[in-house]
Design a protein that fits this description.
Helices cover 67% and strands 0% of the residues. By secondary structure, the protein is mainly α.
């Protein structure tokens, strides 16, 4: 028997001893908590998947980035930059 099997056997013994010690109501409560945690985990995984699909759709719709020509001088002033001077 290797160390993994020994650890599993000891863990199983501990779990069974705990189950014997708990009342039926406590076992029911613990099982309910486990079910709730599993449900929340599945919901979160689905939400993450939907968010990633949404992000991919947005990325596809956005297309490529627009190229901007760098301009050092303009022919006229930019409107609204210098109020009262236009």
């Amino acid at each position: 028997m290797d160390s993994r099997m020994a650890a599993a056997a000891l863990g199983r013994q501990g779990g069974l001893a705990r189950a014997r010690r708990l009342s039926a109501d406590e076992r029911r409560r613990v099982a309910s908590l486990g079910g709730q945690a599993r449900r929340r985990s599945i919901e979160v995984a689905a939400r993450i998947e939907r968010n990633l699909q949404y992000a991919a759709a947005v990325r596809d719709l956005a297309g490529g980035t627009a190229t901007v020509a760098r301009v050092t001088r303009l022919r006229t002033r930019l409107p609204g930059i210098y109020p009262g001077r236009d």
